[in-house]
Specification:
single chain, 10 strands, 26% strand, binds adenosine-5'-triphosphate, binds magnesium ion
Amino acid sequence: MLSLQDVHAHYGPSHVLHGVSLGVSSGEVVALLGRNGVGKTTTIRTIMGLINASEGSIALKDVPIQGEPPYKRARRGIGLVPQGRGIFPNLSVREHLLLPPQRKQQDGQQWTLEEVYELFPRLKERERNAGNQLSGGEQQMLSIARALRGGPDLLLLDEPSEGLSPMMVERVGEILRELKSRSLPILLVEQNVRLALSVADRVYIMNKGQVVHESAASELAEDKETQHRLLGV
Ligand SMILES: Nc1ncnc2c1ncn2[C@@H]1O[C@H](COP(=O)(O)OP(=O)(O)OP(=O)(O)O)[C@@H](O)[C@H]1O
Ligand SMILES: [Mg+2]
């Protein structure tokens, strides 16, 4: 579904990604973990095309996509739930959900408003509320719901549990497991290792702009030494 080979990225003169290689297969949930500042968001933004890879290759469904602008990558089926949620303070819940250009997933599924509201009943109740009237948890649900409306074949989520109460973190986990049960491929960036391991099939850990660990999620769950050394947990 997604493949990165030796991807490098810079912010101006500062070299942030030093040859990142990773992949997500069809129907797979992959977690991308690592401490603060190791390059997780930069990796996600490079996949989406918000930053251009200075070297290396990025392919979606075996088609090279590097150099393409974000809207083209969205059209090819990449959906993004950005770090910080990206909710517009003055747009209503409904308006957020009407924004993304409609696209069918490759399996033919299309997320109608009704289907989105079925998965997120709370958003239906708050349909007419503005973004800045929502709780953090509601904003996160809206950010996920908006990405689904775009009909993604691959969903990128950047720290969806950040800043949420334990109960809302649980809810995010339920949503991710529900999407997984529908075979939606997911690349999940998380600081919450427990949440990530509860949903992921495979994990990568980054350090200093590189992938330094790759294993099955079940293997990392058992490997407390690696968790401690690379994640500080
Ligand atoms: N716009 C920017 N300009 C310059 N440097 C940046 C910019 N954004 C991030 N960086 C730097 O790039 C490195 C990687 O940042 P990135 O946001 O990808 O980390 P992260 O793993 O997502 O961290 P966090 O867990 O805190 O979200 C950091 O050293 C950061 O300071
Ligand atoms: Mg980040």
